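[agent] plan:
  1. take the single chain provided in the ticket
  2. run structure prediction with default settings
  3. attach structure tokens to the ticket
  4. add a short note for the reviewer (M.T.)
[agent] executing step 1
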Amino acid sequence: MVLQLISERQAGIPLLMEPLNGNNSDKESFRQTIQNHIGQLRSDFKLEYLVADSALYYAPTLVEMNDFFWISRVPENLTNAQELIGSIAPDLMENPDQMTWRTLGSNYAGVNQRWLVIFSPEAYQRGLKSVNKLCLKQSTANLKAFEKLCRQDFASVAEALQSLSQFENTLNLTEVAESGIISVPHYSGAGRPSKEQKPDKITYRIEGVLAQRTSVRTLRLLCSSCFILASNQLDMKALVFNRYD
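[agent] step 2 finished; step 3 output follows
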């Protein structure tokens, strides 16, 4: 089971607690809680901002939260977030020892909002370790799978090319470079065949080199080093982001 909790920000006093099934979806439960209790929270506790983790940032929920302000982390797997981080994070990371950020507008799910893209030096250091470890693990597994594929005999060139294409579709961190199909003659009987002897059968094998996609690793490191906060409060003076040490 899980406990859904809404707390007051200054003293951390719980305002609402609700036990839920452990298989419950945070995205759906957050939206249901808002539908059921937001009116009371606004009238009884003078709610100004609802602050929640990325489970709140769900398109159907954002559309319904149009009559109060909210702040949420944007999910890391959101395509818009990954593209944005990939484009501006290199500028934010000019000094990897300093926290930097950039504010810009967004209209995700048809809701006007402000996005704050933040680079964290601490997250960058953690990301270096985790991304390098993950990339090594995946590239090693890809290499073993490719070597196994290259040892496999195929009845035709078309069959070999089809298997190569299927294998390439499974790759995201690496890619097959300088690939080709070679013919392998097979002879019956013992000993080395003579130059005039024709093979009894010909099979085909894949050859090539597995190379790492550095752009994929770079994007993973950028996404591990940055995060995005979003809010529908568009007034720059009402919600000011200040740096603190």
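[agent] step 4 note for reviewer: Residues 78-107+116-235 form one domain.
[agent] ticket updated
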